[in-house]
Amino acid sequence: MKKPTHDEMAEVARDLGMHMSAAEIDTFLGLMDGTVAAYSALEDLPDELPIVKYPRTPGYQPPPDENPYNAWYVKSRIEGAPTGPLKGKTFAIKDNICVAGVPMMNGSSTLQGYLPDVDATLVTRILDAGGTVLGKSHCEHFCFSGGSHTGSIGPVINPHKPGYSSGGSSSGSAALVAAGDVDMAIGSDQGGSIRMPSSWCGTVGMKATHGLVPYSGIMAIEATLDHIGPITATVADNALLLDVIAGSDGLDPRQIEVKRGDYMSALNQSLKGMRIGVVREGFGHANSEADVDAAVRKAAAQFGALGATVEEVSIPMHSVGMIIWSSIAHEGATTQMMHGNGFGFNWKGLYVTSLQRAHDAWRQRADELSDTVKLTILFGHHVLKKYRGHHYAKAQNLNRRLRAAYDEALSSYDLLLMPTTPMKATKIPPADCGPEESCARGLEMIANTAPFDASGHPAISIPCGTSKGLPIGLMLIGRHWDEATIYRAAHAYEQSVGGGATAGRKQTGRRRR
After folding, report:
1. What is the pTM of this model?
2. Most exposed residue of 134, 160, 363, 473, measured as fewest CB within 10 angstroms of its CB?
3. pLDDT tens across 371-380, in order?
């Protein structure tokens, strides 16, 4: 740490709107001697980081014949504990998650070459439970796209249909599970990024209650929207993985009064007595496809055949949820993900300082950002500069009303039901498409998923059929901390339609390659 020069401090004063004489600047520079010394001493202290427990190598970027869907970023086999509930299960870890010593780029060329020095809490939990990590899955550019075309190393292809999107931003994770390359994967979800690719790839994706799974060691977008969770081929595997990764770690301030459930015991239970509300506002969007709405309504009737009471319910605030989410996402992501180098300030927990330093490179390489990230931060920076956070603050206030509207409906129903995405997977736009097409394909599918990132309610996407060779996803939403009831209903439905196999999961024979 070097003491600022006179000219540097004069520039800082001007940035802050202060008018100082040369003598005043020198006076304040003299007063900073003790602070500079403290900062210098801090730099000499060792960082306080979790211990990395399991050996691994940096791995390698697989060639196209090993990576036909472009879903892998890096392959690196990490063997977990010799025993445990996940022994024999293989995993892909989304590439916004730190895995020590294995390259991480979070979909962006500006971060490419970064090697984390820690394992995220959930990675350690998976390995402690006996899981085997096979590598890092591709994700979208800084995870800010619902399509799978924005990553710097090219699009991720839907295993069900060449040329179609696998969804985003956990694009690689869902594609690898759908292709049978891994048993389970981890995704993150700030606007639907676990559930949307699960909808389009025919996998099971759970966005648990905000804070149930620790976000420690993961590059954030916005702390009040950040969720992390499992993507799997079956509901049972999903419940098993959540059982391993859920619970407080003492490092994540998102975790407040966490309440774990008994997820595995919820499986193989009758739906008799369960009440499910089919949310009217989740259907009939301007871009809704008729076959998607029809398939989800047919599945809703199947829940009734299994013993649940299924009724339509209206939640008008659901249509306002996207408006509330948008302000939080634009300003919050600009502040934390970009200006705050993925971590920001004013919270206690695990800061991965090496990631903060590496992510700073975006400032010198902003032209390389994806169109969806550019759109977000261009507008986010503008409104922060012009309106000083007013809209973000108002959106957070209104978010309490949104949460209360869902809670009121959930006081009469055990679960809410709607399509995960209004449409099936869309075609991947050409590489030379303009910002209009790129942003449209990246943001058009989030109307039903994003409001629950704002409200924090748990929500799962399960496959409920196919149309034109593409999966259709159904979303179940539950009360805070009540993932068990979601699993109870999802598993009963899955078993009734053939254990998930008829819901569209594609097997390619590339398992554990």
Report:
1. 0.95
2. 363
3. 999 999 999 9
